[in-house]
Amino acid sequence: MECDGSIVTYNIDNCCQTVNAKWLCLEDIYHKFHRPNFYDIGCTYIADIPDHRFIYTTSQVGNIFLLQLFVSSPQEGSINVTVSNSNEMTFDKKTSNVYLDKSMTNFQVLRVGEREASTGFVTTYSFNELDVECLKDKTLYIAITFKNSQRIDINSSTMDFGDLLNDPVGADFTIESLDGEKFPVHKLLLAGQSEVFKAMLKEETAESQNSYVKLVDVGKEDLQCILEFIYSGTVKDLESKNCYNLLMLADRFNLNGLKEITQHALCYQLTHDSALEILVLSDMYNANHLKMEALKFIKKYNCILDSTFFDEIKNVDLVRELCRFLAI
Questions:
Q1: First-last CA distance in the chain
Q2: Cα angle vertex 150, ends 195, 25, to 5°?
């Protein structure tokens, strides 16, 4: 791709202006998928002043490769950024370039200090082993634009939000779990990441006026995971958590990023004993990627249908969908 000032890259000779940004350039992506870590993409600029810095992480859950995109800025406030939100790849046969340019989605991302980019989670992309093999010796470009962005100023300090969860300086709200564990938190962060929390924290609600809510059906470990995701954009050691509960809670609190990574973790937990239960769960909480993986697993090992759990499924539409899928 010709370097025309629209590509965000770590090449210091390419000073991409924020208003001109069209592509994030991820070089040597194949090897980075096999070396999980944080990787720098580069900055957009206003004149010669750095504006937005993009960073991504690579990780692997079973045979699924994840790429999580983050953004940071030295400015205060939040911004709307439009990014491709699909892992459908377009290959340029004349070059070694691969593009993610489908399903452009607008994200409102909290702008935070440049010291920790992971506090500005944007979205997650998932790839299977074949996808990653196809990226060998390729450069990946992710479509992006700020042209319709609207700056929203907020009174946010440039702090490490992960640290804020462990040392809640300035906390203005308390969430209590089912088992009595209390978590001092920050209304701004909760409202910025979840429309459900945003509605709960409106001035006229009892929760907002009391600066307190008890989630009577959420245990402390699950609540810890929810808050960890809100504050840092990820959950450490996700595979060891109760992903069934986290998928349900991600759907309940409209935490799409948590819902995505939980689906991928549950894909790795598909077994003869769990596949039908995971299928029911995915259907109940609109986890389409997980549902498709469960359907494919059951079709591959159709002896699963001999289990007593199959006879206990009450959702007629789901059973009909399963039968149709098996008949394909």
A1: 41
A2: 95
Written as six digits, the tokens of 65 are 């490769």
As a whole number of angstroms, the distance between CA 96 and CA 317 comes to 44
pLDDT digits (tens, 9 = 90+) for 222-231: 999 999 999 9
Thinking of the domain 270-327, which architecture would CATH place it in? Alpha Horseshoe (1.25)
- Report pTM: 0.56
* 190-214 per-position pLDDT tens digit: 988 899 999 999 888 899 899 999 9
117 pLDDT more than 80: no
Superfamily assignment of 158-260 in CATH? Answer: Potassium Channel Kv1.1; Chain A (3.30.710.10)
* Whether the Cβ atoms of residue 92 and residue 99 lie closer than 8 Å to each other: yes
- In the structure encoding, which two tokens stand for residue 134, read together? 């196809």
Nearest 5°: CA angle at 155, between 151 and 156? Answer: 90
Nearest to 228 by CA among 238, 219, 218: 238
pLDDT tops 60 at residue 118:
no
Secondary structure (H, E, C), 269-281: CCCCCCHHHHHHH
